[in-house]
Structure formats: structure tokens, C-alpha cells
Amino acid sequence: MATKRVVVVCGWLGAKSRPVSKYTELYGAMGYDTVVLLSGEADLLKPHRFVHANAVAQVFMPLKSSPDDVLELIPHMLSNGGCRSWYSVENYLCAADVRYVVPAMVFDSAPSTNVWDSANYAWRATTELPTFLARLATRAMLIGMKWYPTVTRTQDSFEAHWDRYFRSQPHVPKLFLYSPSDNIVDPSHVRAAIACAKSHGGDVDVLEVPGAKHVSILTHAPELYATTVRNFLRKHLAPK
């Protein structure tokens, strides 16, 4: 039996592979293997069981040399889309009875406390989009995201993330990377998550980077970002 350590880079909503590759390069330079989960633009408008439905078979099982191997997975969640991806994949890992552990997790520009307040906060940022069609499409998505739990009579997806990461998994060390200048995810929601994680006795590290835009902290302060992530993982991962 062997343990395979992998960082799971979970992209933000609608992110393409090229911008997300900056994070795989970051971890590669530190000596970590990575896999990527890209978040579809409609992932917050459908049940979690339809998000990354094939990821276990196509992404995670090939990481194992034998069925008895244990996957040591470190999710790096970018915005709420990244949180959604990891939440859904973890459901599949459990359902498939895959042997895995999560020794640490990283939140970048996330999470939000609930979809209603999150949609209202992000609405203001749509005025900065370059075209009318982009504004229209984004606002339609925000309206759908806002009303989806009510219409479908399902749990608010952001509240589901919150329940798992901060109530069911308080023991997992967490690193929060955020900016008070974020115009997509309300910084007060991230601060609430930090406070909640600490209140449950969890080991919490925080990097606040003023002036950075949403999911742009790595671009805004690359050396500080890399140093913070490296030190966090060194502190919480067993040497290999």
C-alpha cells in the first residue's frame, strides 16, 4: 500500500485551463503533483451529482498504482466554483469508497456564506463587464443562482459547502487567501469563514492582500502567495 499526494486545483466558475495552469505551475515548482478540476459556468445551477460525475474514474483512480493505495488530496479551491467542484467530487469519492485523506485545504477568494447575499454582492461588478451581452448573461446567471434553491427546494449550495468545510471537517487545517478589494466574493463572508473555522478549534492561516482583484492574488503578489502556500503545506504535511 502506498500514499499518493496530489494537489487538486479547482478552478473558479467558467475558468479556462490556461489561467488555472498558473496554479499547477506554482505547485509543480514546489515539487507537488497536481490535477485540475475546471468549473463549468452552469455548475451552480444544477445538482451536485451532475458536477464532475466522471472525475473519480477519469482523474482520481488513474493516480493509484493499486486499489489499496491511499490518495492524499489537498484541494486548492478558487472562488465558489472551486468550492463547488471539490464538494461534488468528494461526494463521488465517498460513494465510490475510494481510500483518501485530506490533510489540508486552501481557499482562494472564497467562500461565500449563501447564494442570495453572494449574488447581490456580485451584481454590482457586472457593470464593469465590457459588453452588454456579457452583462446580460452574467446577471441571468446570478438571478438563476439566487433563486435556484427556492425553485428546486434544495439546500443552498454555499450553505452546503459551509456545513462540510467548517462544521463537518473542522479538524482539517485551512489556508485563506483573500483580498478586501474583491468585488465578486464579499470579503466579509471570507472573514466569517475564518472566524467560524477558528471557533471550532481548527488550525487556520490567513493571507490578506489589499488591492488584489477576485482570484488575482497570485498575479498581484506572486512571491508572497507562493511563500505563504509553501509554508502552510510544510507545516501540515508529513515529510516524504
UniProtKB/TrEMBL annotation:
It is a single-pass membrane protein. Keywords: Membrane, Nucleus, Transmembrane, Transmembrane helix. GO terms for cellular component: nuclear outer membrane. It is found in: Nucleus outer membrane. Belongs to the TMEM53 family. This is Uncharacterized protein. It comes from Achlya hypogyna.
